[in-house]
Amino acid sequence: MVQRIWQEFLELVTQEVGSRVVETWLKAVTLQRWDGIERIAYIQAPNTFVKEWIQSHYTQLFQQHLSRLLNVESLQVVFIDAHEKPTEESLSTNIIPAQRVDTVEQRRQLVQRVMHKDRSHINCNYVFDTFVVGPSNSLAYAAAHAVSEKLGVLYNPLFIYGGSGLGKTHLLHAIGNGVKKINPKAGILYQTADRFVNEFIHAIRFDKIHQFHAKYKDVDVLLIDDIQFISNKEQTQEAFFHIFNTLYERHKQIVFTSDSYPADIAGLAERLSSRFQWGLVADIHTPSLETKIAILKRKAELNNDDLPDDVAHFIAQQVEGNIRELEGALIRVFAFAVLTKQDVSVELAKKVLLRTRTEQSQQPVDIARIVNCIERRYRCSIRDLRSGSRSRKISQVRHIAMYLSKKLTNKSLQEIGGYFGRKDHTTVLNAFNKVKDQSQKDLDFKHILATLEREIVN
Ligand code: ADP
Ligand code: MG
Question: On the chain, which terminus has fewer CB atoms closer than 10 Å, C or N?
C-alpha cells in the first residue's frame, strides 16, 4: 500500500511541479513507512544533501498531498537519511500496517530502525506471490522464479525487457526476496543503472574505485534495473564489463531489466550487448484485458477492498496497458468512493477516470515540450533530430517526434517540418502515416507512444 500511495503521490505532484523536479528530486526519495497511529510519514533520502534539499523545499508539498492520499487531515513528515547510522543488520522497514508506538523511547527506536539501511536495497513489498501472471509476462515470471531458486546455473544473465510500468522492477525485487527466503545470508544487491553510474562517478572523484569494485564483485546475486541508463557512459560500461566477467566466471547470478532488447540499446558497447544475450532474454508485453482485470482484483484483494467485476472491467478498459497507471486508477476510484462516502460502482469510476482524462487533454502542448520528452527517453538531441542523419535510430525517433507534433499540437505540417529542419511538408505527413501504421501493427510500439503522449500531456 505504501508503494501504491507513493506512486500515486509522484503522479499527482508531477502535474504540480513538473516532471523535472520529480525526476531530479522526488524520485530520489521514497515513502519508507506510514505510521497510521502517530500519523507520521517517513521519507527516506539517499544522502544528507538530498534530504536537506527536499526538506527545505518540498515539505509542504508532501504534507498536502500525502494527507489527501492517506486520507487524514494532517500529518507529520519525517525525513531520514539512509546513511545516518547504518548498521550491519538489514531490517525490512516497510511495516504495514503501522505498529503501535506507546512511549517516546519506542518511537525513538522505531525511527532508528527505519534508519537502518537494507544494504541489498530490496523492497520487501515486491514478491512473486503478489505478481499476477498472464500471457504477457509468463516467460519473464517463470524465468525469474526459476533463477531465484537456482542461482547462477539456469539462465545467466537473465535479461528482462519491456515497456514502462509492466512489472520489471517488481520481478527484480521478487527475485531478491525469493533468494533471501531460501538463503538469508546470500549476498544480494539491487541497483538501478543510473545510481550505478552515479556511484561510479563518485568513486572516481573520491578515489574509491577499489571499494566500488569490491562492492559489486562480492555478491551472489546482482540485480541491475534499467540497464539502458548506462548507454553512452563509456567508462562506466568498461567498469561494468569487468564486474560482469568476474561475477559470471564465479557463477554468480546476474539479472538485468531494460526498456528494450539488448541489441537495441543505443550507445551500448557491442561486447556488453552480446554478453547480455548469453543467458535468457525474456520480454514483458502489455497485458491483455483479462490480465489487467486479474491484476485489479488481486490489488483490491490485497488491500481488503471489495471491487465489483463490472468496475474492474471498466477500469481495465480505461487504462491502456501500463500497470502502474492501472494501480493509480484503482487508488483514485477507491479514494473518491471513501471521500464521498459512496459505493464503488461503474458510475463512480466513470466520474473519476473520465474527468481526469479531459482535464489532461486540455493542456496546451508545444513542439519544444515534445522534443524535450523525446530527448530524455531516447537520449538523442534536437541537433540529431534536425541533422540529415539517416541512421535507423535517429530517423525513427525523428518520425516519432513528427508524429506526436502533428497529433498533439495545432501546428501546420509546414511548421512542424521547419522545426525539424525539413523544408518539405510531405516528410512530416509520411512520418505521421508510418508511425500510425506501425502503432496499429505493433502493440508494444503503440504502448510506447501512449506512454510518451501521457508524459508530454501531463
Ligand atoms: P517497470 O519496472 O516495468 O516500469 P514496475 O515493476 O515498477 O514496472 O511495476 C509498476 C507497478 O505495477 C508496481 O506497483 C507493480 O507492483 C505493479 N505490477 C506490474 N506488473 C504486475 C503484475 N503482473 N501483477 C501485479 N502487479 C504488477
Ligand atoms: Mg522499473
Answer: C
Are 22 and 86 in contact, with CB atoms under 8 Å apart? no
Question: What are 33's strand-pairing partners?
Answer: 42
Find the largest Cα–Cα distance for the chain: 73
Is residue 165 within 6 Å of ligand 1 at its C-beta? yes
pLDDT digits (tens, 9 = 90+) for 372-418: 889 888 888 888 888 888 888 899 999 999 999 999 988 888 889 88
- From ligand 2's centre to the CA of 101, what distance in Å? 34
Q: Which helix (H) or strand (E) holds 6?
A: helix 2-17
Instruction: Using alpha carbons only, give the angle 364, 370, 376 rounded to the nearest 5 degrees.
Output: 140
Evaluate whether 90 touches 116 at the Cβ level (below 8 Å): yes
Tell me if residue 82 falls in helix, strand or coil: coil
Ligand 1 pocket residue status of 193, Cβ below 6 Å: no
- The CA-CA-CA angle for residues 240, 243, 248, to 5°, reads 125
Q: Distances in Å between the alpha carbon of 371 and those of 50, 73, 410, 450?
A: 28, 40, 15, 15
Q: Which atom of ligand 1 is nearest to the CA of 126?
A: 16
Side chain identity at residue 18, one-letter code: G
Does any ligand 1 atom lie closer than 6 A to the CB of residue 320? Answer: no
- The β-bridge partners of 160 are 257, 282
- DSSP letters, 386-422, are HS----HHHHHHHHHHHHHHHHHS---HHHHHHHTT-
Per-residue pLDDT of 302-321, as tens digits, reads 888 899 999 999 999 988 87
Number of Cβ within 10 Å of residue 6's Cβ equals 21
Grid cell of 201 as nine digits: 562517478
Using DSSP bridges, classify how beta strands 253-258 and 221-225 pair: parallel, antiparallel or unpaired. parallel
**Residue 56, CA distances (Å) to 14, 59, 254, 326 in order:** 18, 7, 39, 33
